[in-house]
Amino acid sequence: MRLLTLAFPILLGSSHVLSTPTQRPFAATAAYEQDRPHLIGPNDSRKLDDEAIIDWVPAPPQGMKLYPLHISGKEDERVNLMFFADGYTFDEEAKFVHDATKLKDDIVSPKGAMFHVAHLLNIWATFVPSNISGIGTQSTSLPGAAFGLYRPGAELRGVYVERKRKARAACTYFREESDEGGCDQPILLGNDPLYGGLGGEFTVITASKLNGPLVLRHELGHSLIPVGEEYEGGFAYFGANSDTIDRVNDLKWKDFLTNSDEVRVEDAKVPLQFYPWHDLDNSSYVISFNSTNTSKGQYPTALLRASLSSIPFASHISITLNGNSLDLSDGFPSAWKGSKDRRWLEVPLERGLSEGESTVKVELTKKGRKEVAGQGGKMITSLEIVEYGGEGRFNQTEGFVGAFPTYAMDGSVTLRPTNEACLMRKVNHPTFCPVCAHALKTSLEGRIVKKRGGL
Ligand SMILES: *[C@@H]1O[C@H](CO)[C@@H](O)[C@H](O)[C@H]1NC(C)=O
Ligand SMILES: *[C@@H]1O[C@H](CO)[C@@H](O)[C@H](O)[C@H]1NC(C)=O
Ligand SMILES: *[C@@H]1O[C@H](CO)[C@@H](O)[C@H](O)[C@H]1NC(C)=O
Ligand SMILES: *[C@@H]1O[C@H](CO)[C@@H](O)[C@H](O)[C@H]1NC(C)=O
Ligand SMILES: *[C@@H]1O[C@H](CO)[C@@H](O)[C@H](O)[C@H]1NC(C)=O
Ligand SMILES: *[C@@H]1O[C@H](CO)[C@@H](O)[C@H](O)[C@H]1NC(C)=O
Fold this sequence. Notes:
There is one protein chain. By secondary structure, this protein is an alpha+beta fold. The protein folds into 2 domains: 12-224, Collagenase (Catalytic Domain), CATH 3.40.390; 267-394, Sandwich (Jelly Rolls). Helices cover 15% and strands 25% of the residues. The strands form 6 sheets. Strands 1, 2, 5, 6, 7, 10, 11 and 12 form an 8-stranded mixed sheet that branches. Strands 13, 14, 16, 19 and 21 form a 5-stranded antiparallel sheet that branches. The protein has a 4-stranded antiparallel sheet with strand order 15-20-17-18. A hairpin with a 5-residue loop joins strand 22 and strand 23. One 2-acetamido-2-deoxy-beta-D-glucopyranose is lined by residues 43, 45.
C-alpha cells in the first residue's frame, strides 16, 4: 500500500491553475440526474427544475486550483473524492485547504471511519473563489457564490445547492478532461462554521469544526456504500445494513453475526420519536407519550436522545421527565463547551419509564433566556426515547452484531446489525459498524473494477 498523504500547506505552481473552455457539449450525466431523497434535513419544496430539459452543461468555473490531499494511486484506479470550495473568498484559499485537509484527516487517518479503504481512495480539493464569505440562508444563495449553497431557513439543518449544473460541470471536468485530479464523488464544502449538509449527487457539508466531520462521514456512507439510515424516524432504509424482520434467519449480514445459530430480534421499543425544531425562546416544549406497557416490567431501562442548537452550556437548558430533571452533561463535553453549533445528547434512564403516560419538558433556564441566540435560534431539534427489553431480551454489549429493530417515520420496522456501533445511526459515533465498513470496501473495489473497464 502506497500512501502519499500531503500535509497542508501545499502551494502549487501556476500550472495548477486550470484554464477551462467556456462551453462544452453535454457530457453523459444520466447517472447523476437522479437526486436521492434528502438524507438529512427538510423536504426541499424547491425541488428541481430545469435540469431535466438541459442538453448542455455550462463550463466549469474559471481559475479552479487543485490541491492533492491524499493520493494513493492513479486517478483511474482509485475512487476520487473531490472537495470544492463554496463561500470562500480569494483571501480564504488557505482556510479552504486547511478545512478540507482536516476533513480528509478525519476520514482516512488511522482512527478514521475510512482508514481501512484509504488505499482505494484519492482525495483532492479544488479552490474556487466566491465573492462573499459564507453561505446563504432563507433559500437565498449569496451573490457571486461558486456553487450557491444555502440553507432553506435559518435552522442548522439541510444545506442545498443552487448552481447544480456548475458543480456538475466542475466535477465532470476533473473526471473526463483534466489530466490532473479526479472526481467520482464531489463534496461541496460550504464556508460556514455551523452544522448543515445533504446527501445525494453532491455530498454537501459545512466547515463546522464540530459537526463537519460527522456530516461528511455520514453522507459519504450514503453515497459511497451506499446505505440508508439506521436512526429512527427516517424514510430511507436500504442497503447492506438493512433487512426486513421476516428475513431474521437469513440476514444480509449473517456472516457477521456474533451468535449465528440463534438469531433473535432484539427487543426495543420507541415510544417517542420526533423532530420538533422548536424555538425555545418562543416557548418551552412539552410532549406527552405513553410508555410501552410496563406493568410486567418488560422494559426496565431506557434512553433519551436529543439534539439541540444554539445552547452553549448545560446550565442554559433544563430537560425534565415527569418532573425529574435529567443530567445533560453527556451533550456538553469539554470540546463542545460554549459552542452554539448543533449538539447531540444521550441520557440513560436507568430505571426506565413508569407505566402509562410520561411527559418530557424542555425549557431554557434564566441563563439560557439571557444568552444571545446563535444562527437558527435556541432549538430542541430532535427528541427520542428508546426502551430496552429486560431479562436478556436486549443485548447492549458493545461489539455485538445481531438484529436490532429500527422504527421508520411511518412506524414500519426494519432491522440493523448493531445497537449503536454505526455512524449511520448515531452521527457522532466515529466509525461504521463492521457490516457497513465491509460493504464500503466491496463497493469501492467494485467501482474501481468498473472504471478499469471491467464489468
Ligand atoms: C415533500 O414535499 C412535497 C410537497 O409539499 C410532498 O408532496 C412530498 O410528499 C414531500 N415528501 C416527503 C418525503 O415528505
Ligand atoms: C463577483 O466579483 C467579480 C469580480 O469582482 C464581479 O465581476 C462579479 O460581477 C461578481 N459577481 C456577483 C454575482 O456579484
Ligand atoms: C414563534 O412563535 C410564533 C407565534 O406563536 C410562531 O408564529 C413562530 O412560527 C414561532 N417560531 C418558531 C421558530 O417556533
Ligand atoms: C395514553 O393512553 C391512554 C389510555 O389508552 C390514552 O387515554 C391517552 O390519550 C394516551 N396518551 C397519549 C399522550 O397518547
Ligand atoms: C398492560 O398489561 C397488563 C398485563 O398484560 C394488562 O392487564 C393491562 O391491561 C395492560 N395495560 C394497558 C394500558 O395496555
Ligand atoms: C451479547 O453480546 C456479547 C458480546 O458480543 C456476546 O458474547 C453474547 O453472547 C451476547 N448474548 C446474547 C444472548 O446474544
